[in-house]
Hints:
By secondary structure, the protein is an alpha/beta fold. The chain has 16 helices and 21 strands.
Amino acid sequence: MTDMTDARTYDVVVIGAGPVGENVADRARAAGLSAAIVESELVGGECSYWACMPSKALLRPVIARADARRVPGLRHSVEGPLDTAAVLAHRDEYTSHWKDDGQVGWLEGIGVDLYRGHGRLAGPRQVTVTATDGTEHRLRARHAVAVCTGTRAALPDLPGLADVKPWTSREATAADHVPGRLLVVGGGVVAVEMATAWQALGSHVTVLVRGGGLLPRMEPFAGELVQEALTEAGAEVRCGVSVTAVERENGTVTATLDDGSALQADEILFATGRAPRTDDIGLETVGLEPGSWLPVDESLRVDGSEWLYAVGDANHRALLTHQGKYQARVAGAAIAARAQGVPLLETDRWGAHSATADHAAVPQVVFTDPEAASAGLTLAEAEAAGHRVRAVDYDMSGVAGAGLYADGYRGRARMIVDLDREILLGVTFVGPGVGELIHSATVAVAGEVPLERLWHAVPAYPTISEVWLRLLETYRG
């Protein structure tokens, strides 16, 4: 075990300075605890530089143009291609040109010490940080170490893959050129968002999906409507196929499929899942399996530990930045309460130290054209959980506000009603602009608002939110 006699001591040591780690440190400092944070790359993490921010910066011009083309008197003003250079420059601004000065300044402003380098556990409450020049720092935590290391792209074990230098989500969001032909392997959120962005920027995109359709974790109609739109935009979507081998020769990628066919492209993006970044953080020094997801209790404390927390993606509860930040607020409050000797934490369902929303009302928006947004359970998930439910569907073209938003509006809404309690277990919207509806659904699901009360939450006319009234009318019959 590492000698920690000269270690610097803090109340809390956080490994990973993405949005989740930043929020844990912030909540600790707000409670009067000292905190250090360790980061091997850029402060701000995956979300700021290779995920949420750059992907949405790429997609915003795409969606804005698509919306404008559906508005009379405006559509002819936005004909022609996007200004690729301007779109990429806009993306670069939102990533701060992959520099973290601003976020480092924010950490300094709240009094959190930053250690740059690779952080590893070195036994209970102990962390070593190895900088790129070999310099080593030893840190000790009085109360808690929080693992906030996130995830990395999971690549399949395919012959020749390493030599091909495939795109992952990082390369797809940070690319400085538009490939003429792009193969996208996968059918989840990263796959459909990047297919949407690069198709609109000029790539010929082919999406290869092993399963039967896109967005398999949402209601089936979400993937169907997104696939329909991608196809209309010029992309090709092939379902029920797998890539068995890849090679690159003279700059061209060839992907061999399990049906014996082969496709060629300039780049290939593998959007085939995520893996925890816990393989080299010293878990073995505290009796845990390297490379594993870390199961936690409702206060985000690792099962069986009194001091180790896993917050955000590393615990596999909900791989979403906003849910990770929510967990960070819960974990920070719980760490502070335990440090201050609070005898009974608020760990009941709605207590300040309990992350209940990760089970009940996780919201998500897929920024495709059309957008897909959901909160809570799908019909299949609710039925699998044993609830007695009814799915209530509504064609969103029948909403006056939707018709004003876009000519020929196409979309669909569904709410999942718990018939025993007369509350909502889940809501899904698909259509232009629905991302801004989802917080209302999140409030309804998380708050377990009775339908008899929701009936009195009157939506403003004429907005797309009127879909709530139409869903409730459909349910009442």
